[in-house]
Design a protein that fits this description.
Layout: H1 2-21, H2 23-28, H3 43-68, E1 70-74, E2 88-93, E3 99-100, E4 114-115, E5 125-129, E6 137-144, E7 149-153, E8 156-159, E9 162-163, E10 165-175, E11 188-190, E12 196-206, E13 212-216, E14 229-230, E15 235-239, E16 262-263, E17 267-277, H4 289-292
Antiparallel strand pairs: 1-2, 2-17, 3-4, 5-6, 5-17, 6-15, 7-8, 7-14, 8-9, 10-12, 11-12, 12-13, 15-16
C-alpha cells in the first residue's frame, strides 16, 4: 500500500515538472482570469496595445463621422437673426451637397474636385468656406442659383426681375444676454417682465419655390440698393437673414469682409439640427451656470 502511494506521488511530481518545462503546456496554461497566457508577453503590455488600438479606431470613427455624416458648427455672430442666434450650436449634414476637400478636417486635399455633387435649393441655410482665404466657416441662406439675376431695391430682393414677396410681421424681440447686444440705441426695448431686450423690425419673405422665412430690416442702408448680379455657373448668391448686418454676396470677396458670389465647390454642408444653444452666461468654474445659460427651447429644432 505504501508502495502505491509513493508511486502516485512520484508520478504527480513528474507531471508537474513536465508542465513547468514543456513550452506547449506553458502556452496553454490559463492565468487567474481563465484566459490563455502567451509566453513572453506580459498581460499589462497586451492591455496597452488593446487601448491604443481602441483609441485609433475611435479617432478614425470620429474623422469619418465629421467628414461624411455630420459636423458641429457654432454661430459666432448675429448675421443670421432671427433664425440663428449668437451662441447656437448646430449639426451640418455633410452629404447633402456632395463631398470635397472642404469636407475633410483642415481641408486636406484628398478629394479631387467635388464628388456626388448636388445643387442646393433656394432658401437652404448652408455652411461654406469663404473665399479668398477658404479657411473660415461661414453660414448664409441661398437666394440665387446659377443663371439667376439678383438685385436689391429699397431693401427688397429682386430675383430674376421679380420682387420676392415681403410682408411686415411683429417685431423680433431679442433678450439682452452676455453674447447679444442691440445694433443701435434706437432698437433698445424691454420685455414684459422689465428685462432689457432689442426690438427689431421683422419681415416674412417667400421665395418662388415656396420656401419662407423671416428677415430683419433695420432701416435704410447703403446695401439696400445694389447693381444687378448674375450668378455664374457652379456658384451661389448667399445672404444673411439680418439684411443690414451681414457681409454677404452683395459685398466683394475680401478676406474678413464680404464673401462675393460663392463657388459651390466651397460648400461644407447644410444646416440640419439645432444641437445646443447658450446665452453666453456660463462659466467653467460654476457648473450650475452650464444649465442656467442654456436656451432649452431652441434645442432640437430642424431647418
Amino acid at each position: 500500500m505504501h508502495r502505491r502511494t509513493l508511486t502516485g506521488a512520484m508520478a504527480s511530481n513528474m507531471d508537474s515538472a513536465m508542465t513547468d518545462t514543456d513550452p506547449a503546456a506553458t502556452a496553454s496554461r490559463p492565468d487567474l482570469t481563465g484566459k490563455p497566457v502567451t509566453p513572453g508577453k506580459p498581460v499589462k503590455e497586451e492591455k496597452q496595445e488593446n487601448f491604443f488600438l481602441f483609441l485609433l479606431k475611435l479617432v478614425l470613427l470620429v474623422v469619418v463621422f465629421r467628414s461624411f455624416i455630420f459636423s458641429p458648427f457654432n454661430i459666432p455672430s448675429e448675421s443670421m437673426l432671427p433664425r440663428l442666434l449668437n451662441g447656437d450650436y448646430l449639426l451640418a449634414s455633410k452629404w447633402s451637397y456632395g463631398f470635397s476637400k472642404y469636407s475633410l478636417p483642415f481641408s486636406v486635399p484628398l478629394i479631387p474636385g467635388r464628388i456626388f455633387a448636388r445643387q442646393p435649393q433656394r432658401g437652404d441655410i448652408v455652411i461654406f468656406k469663404a473665399p479668398p482665404g477658404n479657411d473660415v466657416d461661414y453660414i448664409k441662406r441661398v437666394i440665387g442659383l446659377p443663371g439667376d439675376t439678383i438685385q436689391m431695391r429699397n431693401g427688397q430682393v429682386i430675383l430674376n426681375g421679380k420682387p420676392i414677396a415681403k410682408q411686415k410681421v411683429a417685431n423680433f424681440i431679442l433678450p439682452l444676454t452676455p453674447n447679444t447686444h442691440c445694433y443701435a440705441m434706437e432698437f433698445e426695448s424691454q420685455q414684459a417682465d422689465g428685462s432689457p431686450a432689442c426690438s427689431y423690425p421683422q419681415f416674412h419673405e417667400t421665395l418662388p419655390n415656396g420656401k419662407s422665412y423671416n428677415v430683419l430690416d433695420l432701416g435704410t442702408q447703403p446695401q439696400d440698393d445694389t447693381p444687378v448680379y448674375t450668378v455664374p455657373a457652379d456658384h451661389l448668391f448667399l445672404m444673411g437673414d439680418n439684411r443690414d448686418n451681414s457681409l454677404d454676396s452683395r459685398f466683394p470677396a475680401v478676406e474678413g469682409e464680404g464673401i462675393g458670389i460663392v463657388p459651390q465647390k466651397n460648400l461644407v454642408g447644410k444646416a440640419s439640427i439645432m444641437m445646443f444653444s447658450t446665452d453666453g452666461g456660463a462659466e467653467w468654474l460654476k457648473p450650475w451656470t452650464w444649465f442656467t445659460a442654456a436656451r432649452w427651447s431652441r434645442i432640437g429644432g430642424t431647418f
